Amino acid sequence: MNVAIASAALQPSRLTPGTDVLANEILSCLRYRFGKDATVAKPHDWLAAAIRVVRDRVIDRWIESTKEAYDDSRKRVYYLSLEFLIGRLTRDAFSNLGMMEEMRAALHKLGVDLDVIAALEPDAALGNGGLGRLAACFMESMATVDVPAHGYGIRYENGMFRQEFSEGWQVELPETWLDYGNPWEFERRERSFEVGFGGLVEFAEGDDEKHVWKPIERVLAVAYDTPVVGWRGERVNTLRLWSAMPIDPIRLDAFNAGDHIGALRDFTKADTLSRVLYPADATPAGQELRLRQEYFFSAASLQDIVQRHLSQYGDLSTLGQKAAIHLNDTHPAIAVAELMRLLMDVHGFALEKAWDITRETFAYTNHTLLPEALESWPVHLLDRLLPRHMQIVYSVNSLLLKEARDKDTFSDDSIKRISLIDETGERRVRMGNLAFAGSHSINGVSALHTDLMKETVFADLHRLYPDRINNKTNGITPRRWLLQSNPGLTQLARETIGDGFLDDVTLLRDLEDYAKDGGFQEKFTGVKRRNKERLAALVVERLGVKVDPSAMFDIQIKRIHEYKRQLLNIIEAVAVYDQIRSHPEKEWVPRVKFFGGKAAPSYVNAKLIIKLANDVARVINRDPTVRGLLKIVFLPNYNVSLAEVMVPAADLSEQISTAGMEASGTGNMKFALNGALTIGTLDGANVEMQEHVGADNIVIFGLTAEEVAERRREGYSPRDVIAQSPELSQALSSISSGVFSPDDPDRYRGLMDGIYNTDWFMVAADFDAYTDAQRKVDAIWRDPQLWAEKSILNTARMGWFSSDRTIREYARDIWNTPTVGG
C-alpha cells in the first residue's frame, strides 16, 4: 500500500471543505490521538484514524438515540445472546451513514486505499455460526426500523478459535482479534456489576419468608459498548458486552509469601469467563465453565436492565410493560430464574407476582430441535454453583405442574415431560422448558421448524399453553449481504431499477422484468464472473490452488455437523470422481466444490469429516484424469469476512441438511439473494424459499421431515439401500478401504460403518436423489441463458427474507413496540 503523501498534501491550509475536511480530520486524528505524523503512520494507524473520524459522527446520533429511548411511550428491547457474529464493522458503519465514498475519496487524497486498510480489521470472534450471525443481523435491523434496543453478550477475548489445518486435520488456535484494540468499543467501567457463584442460601434476619443468597465467589462484569448503526444512520443502538474481572486482582499476602500462582487464582478464574466462546464441554470442568458463562452475562445484563428501569420508573411491577427481554436460544435461559431472584429476594415480590412479571417480560426464540442443543444441567451442578436459582426452579416448577394437573387432561407421562426437571436418568434441569415456561412468547424460525416444535420437543408444553408458540421466519440484512458484499450486483440493480430497493429490498422484484433480457443477463453474469475471479485469487493466495472461474462454483459453508451433511456432499464428489474416470467420453460439467466451516473441538466425527474432505481434495486435485472437471477446496477459518467473498461468487448453494433438523438457515438466503441456485432438502426456510422463488428456480430433493420420521419409526435398513445403489456402494467402499487415506487405511471405517449400520442422518437414504438433483443442476448449467434467468429470479424474489421484515414481525407480535417503514 502506498501511504507516502506529498508534503504539500500534508498542509491543512491546502485542504478545502467537503471531502478535504474529512482528510483534515484524519490527519488531525493521527496527530492528536495517536501521536503520529502521516509520513510514519502504518496501515493500522490509518484504519484506526479513519474509524474514529466516522465514529465521532456515530456518537452524535448514538447519544440522540439513547435520549429518544427514554421516551415513556417507547418500549425497550433487550436481546440476550451468547453469540454476536458481527464481523468487521467499518464498512457497516461507513455504508449505513452514507459516508463510504466520501471516506474513500478522502483517504485516496492522502494516498491510502480504503479497501486495503478495511481488510486489516479483524473479524470480532464473538460467534460460531448462524445463531450469532442472526443476532448481528437483528441488531442492525432493529436500529434500521427504529426499535430502541440493547444487545447483551460476552466480550470474548479469544472467542471462537482460529481454524488451521495440519495435514488436513483441524487445529484450534486462539483468535487474537483484540491485538490492536477495538476502536469501535467504549469501556464503561461505571457500568460494572458483581456476579456471584456458589455459597449458601439463608433466611433474611427476622423474616423466614425472604431468602438471602450469600455467594462464596464473586466476579465483576464490566460493560463494553459498541454502537450499532442502522441504515441511513437514523438510529444507533447499543451492543453491550461483558468482560469479567476479579474484584481483587491479586492477593498480596499470598504473593509475598511466595505463592505467586495462588495469588492470581481469582484473576484466572474470572479471566476464563470471558476468554473463550463455547469451551469444550466433554469434561465436568468444561460444563461448569459454560454454565458460569451463561449465568455471568445473564446476571450482569439483568442487573443493568433492572437498574435502568428503576431509575426511570421506580417500580418493577411495570417491567413487562416497558421492557421486552428476548432470549436468543436456551443459552440465557438461566435469566428467567435470575429475574425471579431479583424480584423476590431483592425487591420483595411474592412468588406468584414475580412469576407473572417474569412471564410478561421474557420471550424466547428456539433455534433447534436437536436434543443436545436444548441445554440441560445436572441438578447437583446447579445446586452447587447457583443454589438459590435451583430453589427457584423447584418453586416455579411446582406452579407449572400444578397448573398442568389442574387441567385434568395431562397424563403422568405428559406431566413428566412438562416438568423443568428431567428424572429419566441423572436428574437435570431442562433449560428449554424453563425458557418456555418463563416466557409469554416462544417462536420458531421457519414455518416447518415451528410446526415441528409443536409436535416434538414442546408438544406437551404447547398443549398446556396453546397460544404461546408462533413463527418468525429468519431474515438477513441486505446492507451486509448485498450492498457491501456484492457492490457490483448492487450497482447493476441501481442502474436497472433505480435506488428504491436500497430502502425497501422487496423492490428487487422489479428485476423480474429483466430475467429473460439477454443484455441484462450478460451484465448479471459478468458481475458473477468478477466475484468468482476474486474468490479464485483468494484460493491461490491462501492455498496455492488454482481454480477456473468458468467452472461451476458449488459451495457449502456452515458449521460442520453430521445433520448438515457435508458428508453427503463429499461422498457424492467421490462418486463423481469414479464416474469421470470410468466414463471420460461423457460430457462432464466442470465443477469446483468449496467447503468452509469449523467443527466443535470435542466433536470427533465432525473433525473427521473435515479430514476426509481434505484427503479427498488431495487425491482428486492431483489426478490428471479429472483435471479441469472436478476440484475440491476447503478454505480454513471460515468467518464473516470469508463469507462476504464466497457468497457472491457462488453458482450453487448447498443446503442439504437432513429434513426436519435445520431450524431455518440463513446462508441459504444470502446465497439466493446473490443469484445462486439452491440445491436442498425441504428443510428449514428452504420450504418458504421454494414458495417465494418458485419451484422451477430451486432444486429440491430427498426425504421430507415426515418421511424421515416415518423411516426412523418403522425401522430402516441402510445396507439394503446401499446394496441397490452401485455408485453409493463404490464410493463408500473406496473411502472405507483407505483409497483416500493410504497412510491409515482404517481411518474412515468407523465413519462409514455409521452409514451402513444406522444412517441416522439419512445419507444413504437420500444419496440417489441427491445425485439425480446434481445431474439436473448440470443440465441447467449447460444452458447459460436458462441458468442466468433462474439466477436473476432468485435475486429478484428474495426480498421477503430481509431481517427488517423479521424484526417488524417480532416488534408487532411479541414485543408490542412500533417500528418505521414496511
From TrEMBL:
Cofactor: pyridoxal 5'-phosphate
Enzyme class, first EC level, given as a word: transferase
Gene3D superfamilies: Glycogen Phosphorylase B (3.40.50.2000)
Keyword Signal listed: no
Pfam name, any one: Phosphorylase
Catalytic activity: [(1->4)-alpha-D-glucosyl](n) + phosphate = [(1->4)-alpha-D-glucosyl](n-1) + alpha-D-glucose 1-phosphate
CDD domains in alphabetical order: GT35_Glycogen_Phosphorylase
Keywords assigned: Carbohydrate metabolism, Glycosyltransferase, Pyridoxal phosphate, Transferase
Entry superkingdom: Bacteria
EC number(s) given by UniProt: 2.4.1.1
Function comment: Allosteric enzyme that catalyzes the rate-limiting step in glycogen catabolism, the phosphorolytic cleavage of glycogen to produce glucose-1-phosphate, and plays a central role in maintaining cellular and organismal glucose homeostasis.
Sequence similarity: Belongs to the glycogen phosphorylase family.
Name of protein: Alpha-1,4 glucan phosphorylase
Source species: Mesorhizobium liriopis
